[in-house]
Amino acid sequence: MSARGFASDNSATIHPDVLAAIARANVGHAFGYGHDDYTPRVEAMFREHFGEQAKAFFVFNGSAANVLSLRAACRPWQAVICTETAHMNVDECGAPEALGGVKLLQVPAEHGKLTHELVQSRITRIGDEHAVQPRVVSLTQCTELGTIYSLRETRKIADLAHANGMVVHMDGARLGNAAAALDLPLRALSTDVGVDILSFGGTKNGLLGAEAVVILNPELAHGFDFLRKQTLQLASKMRFLAAQFEALLTDDLWLRCARQANAMALRLADHVRRVKRVEITRPVETNVVFVRIDPKATAALQQQFAFYVWDEHAGEVRWMCSWDTTVEDVEAFADAVREAVG
Amino acid sequence: MSARGFASDNSATIHPDVLAAIARANVGHAFGYGHDDYTPRVEAMFREHFGEQAKAFFVFNGSAANVLSLRAACRPWQAVICTETAHMNVDECGAPEALGGVKLLQVPAEHGKLTHELVQSRITRIGDEHAVQPRVVSLTQCTELGTIYSLRETRKIADLAHANGMVVHMDGARLGNAAAALDLPLRALSTDVGVDILSFGGTKNGLLGAEAVVILNPELAHGFDFLRKQTLQLASKMRFLAAQFEALLTDDLWLRCARQANAMALRLADHVRRVKRVEITRPVETNVVFVRIDPKATAALQQQFAFYVWDEHAGEVRWMCSWDTTVEDVEAFADAVREAVG
Amino acid sequence: MSARGFASDNSATIHPDVLAAIARANVGHAFGYGHDDYTPRVEAMFREHFGEQAKAFFVFNGSAANVLSLRAACRPWQAVICTETAHMNVDECGAPEALGGVKLLQVPAEHGKLTHELVQSRITRIGDEHAVQPRVVSLTQCTELGTIYSLRETRKIADLAHANGMVVHMDGARLGNAAAALDLPLRALSTDVGVDILSFGGTKNGLLGAEAVVILNPELAHGFDFLRKQTLQLASKMRFLAAQFEALLTDDLWLRCARQANAMALRLADHVRRVKRVEITRPVETNVVFVRIDPKATAALQQQFAFYVWDEHAGEVRWMCSWDTTVEDVEAFADAVREAVG
Amino acid sequence: MSARGFASDNSATIHPDVLAAIARANVGHAFGYGHDDYTPRVEAMFREHFGEQAKAFFVFNGSAANVLSLRAACRPWQAVICTETAHMNVDECGAPEALGGVKLLQVPAEHGKLTHELVQSRITRIGDEHAVQPRVVSLTQCTELGTIYSLRETRKIADLAHANGMVVHMDGARLGNAAAALDLPLRALSTDVGVDILSFGGTKNGLLGAEAVVILNPELAHGFDFLRKQTLQLASKMRFLAAQFEALLTDDLWLRCARQANAMALRLADHVRRVKRVEITRPVETNVVFVRIDPKATAALQQQFAFYVWDEHAGEVRWMCSWDTTVEDVEAFADAVREAVG
Q1: What are the DSSP calls for A131-143, one per residue?
Q2: Are B227 and C33 an interchain contact pair (Cβ–Cβ within 8 Å)?
Q3: Does D230 contact chain C (CB < 8 Å)?
Q4: Is the complex ipTM higher than 0.85?
């Protein structure tokens, strides 16, 4: 693969602004581990985006941001309510359990979204020493299936959590895509609707490789710097992580990248919606299109374009756009889809 | 700080060849997680350097490489013999214990070096269920104090380990500096003297941020890909880690960088050796000079140059050179030292 | 409470033979930790019951036996398939995850029983480094709902597990009740149908407090003595755990106790089956009766008799018999039930 | 072995009062897990002994009491200062690290005793995210070498700990022996000199098998019931653990047992002090005598009497008395010692 495909937004390139920012930061010596000039400057940018109390900690990848968030929130007997399809549940090779010792209380959820009722159903056996105690609700925004929580939905879940002494973690590996889709600032989807701790994604939105844990509820910040180091996420040459985020948060680069990815997915969906024998299986709300399609067509298409089969049994595949997907890419792909399904 | 100081080799810049390699890799899409064209190519370069059986796994930082090595080698009741000054013992915020559940059996060691006798002293209570069982000897090459194990010393420790059913981990965060100092290829210091698993450093030798676990004993490779993912070290845009190592291993960049850092430390040592009231406290064998010096002089020097106090009580400080340290840097610093101690 | 109720078989007394055995062992000194005369003798009794290769390790309670079994079988990236209602999933306060770092892959299951199909459904993503790898199937015999796996059912699951390189753990906290119900020896339900490692219960069947991990597949025995000590399950005065099991395995005490408990539950079921407004909700196969009953009747009954509400929403309660439940106890309770439901 | 030897106080029998208490509790049903009549009654006895704020939690063994104490006190980045010879450091098979994820900061200590200065030496790098942060000082009273902390010594260490935001754990597996030797109540050695959490031993002082974690600082009690269950220490038939402690705390049984053991050790020490070629190596302050003796004499003695070699290289052996050691036992052993050394 070197042409642009539809496999994942982490197959994409580094945005040129980001690479330029790294190059600009590559002058002279800088103390390691964030004791440089860049890091505090970019931490301040996070406060502008997420509120004055927000504390940003840069880390290497999204699984790490998630596991760190859970470690910050949970004592050993406390557990996390999430969907069955949550990244932390199915795509982190058991890191929450193995590194954090945290049990995940999973619920089956339509299109990857928790609801107030689903969360409520797992808040049980409070005070019963035989059972782990729910402490965190973790929701993914946008979800692993590309769907979006409305502000009202998030707020309702957050209120329920807080009323039960729990906190809300948001896996925002693609928060930018959700904010772009809703045409709202980042804090509207997180700080302002009760999120306590956030995994904020960068790698899927044009960075080389950097994510941030953003602590919005200061009670969760105690000892977090130690946790980050212990969880193997303290970069020695931190300035180069900070520089990436500086680029991302400058001139709304994050928004421009996310909008492009979303727009390309919508364009693709518009095309395929009109194609017989291709059934869109999930609401197309951000940068991804899930469809059901004949496995033979899948096989034919994969000769030319990279993408993943999501559910082999159901014949469901995932077509994901990224910041660098172009109109030409989409047109070419849509043509190929039409041809493949005959 | 933005002038070059002597704080650490991770205060240094990215080598331009490395940044260029990243930029070159930034074309088109590539599957994530190493399923790209770069990664297997660079893995092959590691086999050239470390032998046909060597399996390289790229990770984000040195603590991670160490913890992963221990996780690969140890069942829960097994322990690691290391020095009291080992990075894994004092500078990883308890990650080996907290993430790996591994107990470290520490020995006080002169100038950071294990010996056959010291290792032997901790191989005790074999088969006694009340005691953890030694499984790994971990030695740092070059050590945290800049000293080097001779081939014979490493071999003797490895033979002892193997005779006791144990394996040898080498923390090679600065293996390049040791190899440059001994004027030997990397495999001579590792594969050829019985090392089973290696943390191979890149970040301190000119990379943006990348290290590798190199498994030299295939018995330790079982499940390692899962361990890497679970330990939060699987980069999604892996091609950019691979590209860094490709640059490092091309045209002996690693060697040129390490030689420069070593040469600068020797030059600095030559200067200060002739300065009264500055006592070199450790053999200067690689890229670092430890000295005892009047705290007032330290304070004065730190106004101009970045470096760390190593042992406040002893008045010992650490002056570390890096790949980008220049002759002019050293001369200016040596002048300042002379002036500071009066 | 001091009259006999129907709360749990661990509300019951110690069988007099067991207490007598403890008293008999209380003579003179004995080396701790199993290096006494009693322990090897009782280990030999386990070999008689479970086969020559069986290795028994006495521990303090059932959760510990389960967690130890999983720790023995799993490397950190490996996972356990079990039912949603499995004791290890809902009643061990997250110990498998927190102490063992093990993820549980749960399936909803009717009346607490795994099936070949349910297990098959969780054997997925083999070799995919993002996902934990199934390693253990854990089934409870008899189940938490009192139901029994037939030999054929267990064997089919075991064959599936073994065909996939997995092992079978049996939570046999009440294995005696299952064996008594099937009128088969203990090994017929475990060793002979492919179980690899067994939690064998004693506390619920007349002991003061002792369980055993019985390793049937010698490959899982490596390092188990260390694991037991590290998991805080090595009794110093081991002779008194051994003595309890000696009593249990002498003159079929385990069988007599289990038969009595089972018979009392069947008797109770016979009574209530004929009572209107009491609906038996689970097959009554061992020593427990689950019924749906009016919450008011429950409240009235609980004034006199101890028992637990199983599912408040469904109005389902659990009536459990134990080795010391008498015919008179059952008759009195059945009378009270009739009266309570009017 | 079945005659009484000098191997360990856990080789001893159950005191008859304790066995009688178990038998007395063996009447009728009792809810499991401490929801019985015995447990709250005995918890109240602990409050009488340790103060009104004391919360006692019964567990199975001493390693568990220690690990639970550390888990209650430490977040993941926090560490424990203890001696190199501490039971938790050398005799718990790495459980603090493997189950608690806790790093032990060990100090070499004369005769097993921490000092204010030794503790001070490990309170370093506070706030440095690369280093674990000291949170607990753990001292053993009496120590593993039979020595005793004076009230003043404990208080001085506790004051230092508290002044640094740390807490004090006391491993009191043999606290009774220390209290008996000092002729002071239990609380004088613990509550009153600043101990925050205590492992209180019973098994070595006449019980069948029971220990207690006694939380003296209520801040450490949060979630402890969950921790006990998760750490596999919640007994289902709890009444029989409670009954043991009830016996121990009734009519000063603990004190009578401890005094007897201590007196027998002092008697033995008096004998051997007058024997040439037997050198007492540690202050004899409680129920144990350490001596240096010719290995041939050791071998001869071990034909008749059970005891352990403590340090093979030094020819040091341990002779431990227990609650059931008699004057005749000591006389016979002293005679044998005299004969063995010729």
Answers
A1: S-EEEEEEEESS-
A2: no
A3: yes
A4: yes
